[in-house]
Amino acid sequence: MMRRALALSVLLAGPALAQGPAESPRQMVAAAHPLAVEAGLAALRAGGSAVDAAVAVQVALGLAEPQSSGIGGGAFIVYHDRASGRTLAYDGRETAPAAVTPRLFLDAEGRPISFRAAVASGKSVGVPGALRVLALAHKEHGKLPWRDLIRPTAAKAREGFAMGPRLHRLLGEFAPLVGRPAFKGLYQASGRPLPVGTLLTNADYAATLEAVAGDVEAFYRGPLAEAIVAAVQADGGAMTASDLAGYRALPREPVCGPYRAYRICSMPPPSSGGIAVLQMLAMLERFDLPALSADAPAVRHVFAEAGRLAFADRDKFVADADFVPVPVAGLLDRAYLRTRAGLIDPLKALGTAAPGEPAGRRADLFAPYRQDERAGTSHVSIVDASGNALSMTTTIEGPFGAGIVVGGFLLNNQLTDFSFRPEIDGAAVANRVEAGKRPRSSMAPSIVFDARGEVAAIAGSAGGARIIGFVAQTLSAMLDHGMDPLAAMARPHVQNRNGPTEVERGTAAERLAADLRALGHAVTALPIDSGQTAIRRRGGVWQGAADPRREGSAGGN
Predict the structure, then answer these.
(1) For the stretch 506-529, what's the b/e string if a residue is b when 16 or more beta carbons lie within 10 angstroms of its beta carbon?
(2) 446 located within any domain
(3) Which H or E run contains 467?
């Protein structure tokens, strides 16, 4: 067990907190923009299910938070149907066009091109899956007509909404990417972002939503699909009409595992997020975290070490399981994880961790290589009046995706989540580019169940590869230390992705640097911009909140 000498409590101040989480005895929506929360609540008030609310939230996010998600991207959904007791996963991850090869991001000499060059081109655009995955989930679990969930946002796009501070700031930060003509009419004037509070309208997006409200196939076939293909090809991409028409959202089995008195279910491959979060928490079970302060150096140390080990496995073994044999059962085997946890020394950092040897591995074939994701993502947490729960992480990959606007919405740059190098020293990289393949993700939409099998919490985040640490930290804060969702998400971030231990700059987490360095950590302080939402049941009340680092909110009725 940990040395009590390291358990000295450190009071850490994170982002400014609101007075507390939103509360409701019946139903709750938490999302990254108030307009999206209201759209979801309107669906619930009309008698809709959690899936109905998610459809309404997604199209509203595409209007009000276009830098992070939208119908030009993809999504992962974990859904719990209370009546049947089933927990399901839906895969709406983008796919690589049929014409691409593993050399997609290599130059003529076989060297990887720059990340910036890859992002700002049609080469980076994957076949969008967000609408198809929502349509699949809605077909199975929706209660309200599809059109009634989409048309209110079409009306809002014509009416207008106020430019928010985050959208304004990111438009300035990503000026080269968003300097294309289609952007200028939407969010800019004279090449500069419009002021905060400016009423923004989007007639093209309204027209797109009206078409999609009539039939989701309007996105994947016909004039809109032709416009998407033309825009991608004009910018160097390989997408065709057949790629769009042939896209399929896939039902998958979630990955699930125990954590103390709870059971947690999350997203399987092609996401690495669910496996890595479950691995981290399983390794942390060795330590009596509830007996210590949440921000004790000892707690932060073992958390970082668990992240280091999980990322070593993630980078080596996880990719699209339809293309490579991912040893999911071996990676989540309890005996294997006890062995991995045994590598954590409470008094000394590991340094760079090596991947383990889980059952079912093909270590001779797949070389470790990480292509980091960027933080253009959003998370949605919903519970409806029947107790059904939904955790959805939705993304266009980087802020503003590929910077290509069609029909009033942005197209993703999701293919840059593939490893640019297809092989290393003659060994194939698991996450290499291949036609029809889904790039590896770190998204970890998660649902927590108590000992009776009832939903206890929902969590997920934006943030690229750091999503794994964000979600694991928030779940531990709620389950080990009894924090409400807002307090849990506001904790300053400390995490490790099998490199330096990162502490959130500008917060009192920086005070931990000396303690962590004394244990052998290489520590770096940097801005860490998570974008979480979470819901927790406390007694008979749902508590919901959004990450105070962004402009999201939560509400119930």
Answers:
(1) ebebbbbbebbeebebebebeebb
(2) no
(3) helix 467-481
Q: What is the pLDDT of residues 152-174, one digit of tens each?
A: 999 999 999 999 999 999 988 88
Predicted confidence (pLDDT) per residue in 39-50, tens digit: 999 999 999 999
- Closest Cα to residue 494, out of 287, 279, 289, 303? 303
- Which residue is it, tokens 């939208």? 70
How many structural domains is the chain composed of?
1
Catalytic residue among 87, 95, 208, 377: 377
What is the rounded distance in angstroms from the CA atom of residue 303 to the CA atom of residue 294? 11
Instruction: Give the span between the Cα atoms of 419 and 105, in whole angstroms.
Output: 9
Distance of CA 108 to the CA centre of its chain: 34
Report residue 532 as tokens: 């979480």
Higher pLDDT, 368 or 24: 24
pTM, whole model, 2 decimals? 0.95
Tokens of 430: 């698991």
Distance from C-alpha of 275 to C-alpha of 254, rounded to nearest angstrom? 10
pLDDT of residue 120: 87
Residue 181 located in a structural domain: yes
The answer to whether position 116 is within a domain reads no
Please give the Cα distance from 12 to 512 (Å, whole number): 9
Place of tokens 């000498």: 5
Q: What percent of the chain has pLDDT over 70?
A: 94
- Both tokens of residue 466? 């750091």
Rg of the chain on CA atoms, in Å: 22
Structure confidence at residue 374 (pLDDT): 65
Sign of CA dihedral 452, 453, 458, 459: positive
Quick check: is 394 catalytic? no
User: What angle, rounded to 10 degrees, do the helices at 50-64 and 203-214 form?
Assistant: 160
Specify the pLDDT at position 176. Answer: 67
Helices (H), 342-418: none
The conformation of residue 297, written as its DSSP 8-state character, comes to H
**Alpha helix locations (H) across 215-247?**
217-220, 223-234, 241-245
Question: How far is residue 392's CA from residue 549's CA, in Å, rounded to a whole number?
Answer: 19
- Place 1 in a pLDDT band, splitting at 50, 70 and 90: very low
Print the domain residue range for 168.
163-199
In this structure, the dihedral spanned by the alpha carbons of residues 30, 440, 497 and 472, taken in order and rounded to 10 degrees, is 30
